Amino acid sequence: MPRRRIYLDNAATSFPKPPEVLEAMVRYATDVGVSPGRGAYAEVREADRIVRECRELICRLMHGADPDHVIFTLNATDALNLAIKGLVSPHRRRGEPVHLVTTWMDHNSVLRPYHALRTDGAQVTHLGGDPRTGTVTPDQVDRAIRADTRVVAVVHGSNVTGAIQPIAEIGAVCRRRGVPLLVDAAQTLGHCPVNVEHDDIDLLAFPGHKGLLGPLGTGGLYIRPGLEARLDPLREGGTGSNSEQDVQPAVLPDKYEPGSPNAIGIAGLAAGVRWILDRGVETLRAHEANLVGIILDAIDATPGVRVLGPAGAEARCGVVAITVDGMTPEEVSATLDRDFGVLTRSGLHCAPGAHRMMNTTEGGGATRLSVGPFLTADDARHVADAVHKLGSRTLEGAGA
Ligand SMILES: Cc1ncc(COP(=O)(O)O)c(C=O)c1O
């Protein structure tokens, strides 16, 4: 096994994390330890402060209006389920028709909840996009919206092509048509600037464990103030507040956060987001775009290697998916790991529609390389060199 190991699977979960993340979690576990919102002693007040601070930091990062509208969830999937099913539920209760819009570039964490609702009678429109990038146009969204459309869900940055959707323009359309826009920021929050107020984003679902550099088991949903009146909770239970009432409290965040939270994870997440804010998300974005540029340049110069998605680094998040002539994606990943110490993810990436659009389903998908803030330009050159050698080897093997 080569000594140098380069982790390029940050789209699955980021690694490594800043040391401050582990320190914050160890401090929580050793010095605080208690369940937030349950009691009035000093340790509970400190736990409450940490959880509150995490909401404030995340709200600042996405330019939200109110930290209490940042709801903690298990991961992005949990947040997307809350948003989609919570918006549909009041219409179901009233026996009203339900129409849902999304794109074929979206992840199974949107496609599968939509499918489940469809088997229950909802109608679904999937938007196809540009054949090279998968991006949709605001006009397509406008034409898809109907009087009974309850939500438009769009992935911000594709976890397959890396392509960034024109979210601000889509947001303007949805706002004008009065339909909530749910953005899946699983590949963008922490990597790219996100501004929910400016871009008319009503709901933003995000993982805590990817771009925000927190631990696995963290995520969240931002809910635009006012929208909570139309969004049912998926779970009811103890909140440490209004315990005499039979009904779930209407106040946020309690409405959507029954049960003891993952406070240790949230402590780590707060440290991750602080690390990002201290450096500036624009700086991190520029760093990752530079890494992606180095990798793309090498691939462009390699016959037999195809890169999916937009041509340059600017139009994509930190994701580069490739196919190599004469090799399955699994073989590409295995060779990159064994011979070059480069760790990648092959297959359909839980986004079957995106692979259908890119015509990569038959070949078993693609091999995804996804960068993070701790990779250096030297690492990116090593990766670029590895992909170049791989492509050249298969060409030699084919006798070209
Ligand atoms: C675009 C996209 N959406 C949603 C998810 C789901 O995120 P999580 O694993 O936090 O549930 C992922 C994760 O791979 C993703 O890439």
Write the SSE topology:
Elements lengths: L5 E2 L11 H14 L9 H21 L7 E4 L2 H18 L5 E5 L4 H12 L3 E5 L10 H7 L4 E7 L11 H11 L3 E4 L18 E5 L11 E5 L39 H17 L1 H20 L4 E3 L11 E6 L4 H12 L1 E2 L1 E3 L4 H6 L8 E5 L6 H21 L3
Parallel strand pairs: 1-11, 3-4, 3-5, 5-6, 6-7
Antiparallel strand pairs: 2-8, 7-8, 9-10, 10-13, 12-13
Bound molecules: pyridoxal-5'-phosphate.
The site of pyridoxal-5'-phosphate has 15 residues, from helix 3.
Provide tags for this entry.
alpha/beta, Aspartate Aminotransferase, domain 1, Aspartate Aminotransferase, domain 2, 4-stranded antiparallel β-sheet, 11 helices, binds pyridoxal-5'-phosphate
Report the CATH topology name of the largest domain.
Aspartate Aminotransferase, domain 2
Question: Rg from C-alpha positions?
Answer: 22 Å
Tell how many strands the DSSP assignment holds.
Answer: 13
Instruction: Give the CATH architecture of the largest domain.
Output: 3-Layer(aba) Sandwich
Question: Quaternary status of these chains?
Answer: single chain
CATH superfamily of the largest domain: Type I PLP-dependent aspartate aminotransferase-like (Major domain)
What is the CATH C-level name of the largest domain? Alpha Beta
Main sheet specs:
7 strands, mixed
The number of distinct helices, counting runs of at least 4 residues, comes to: 11
Bound molecules: pyridoxal-5'-phosphate
End-to-end Cα distance, whole Å, is 29 Å
How many domains? The number is 2
Computed structural class: alpha/beta
Please, what is the average pLDDT? Answer: 96
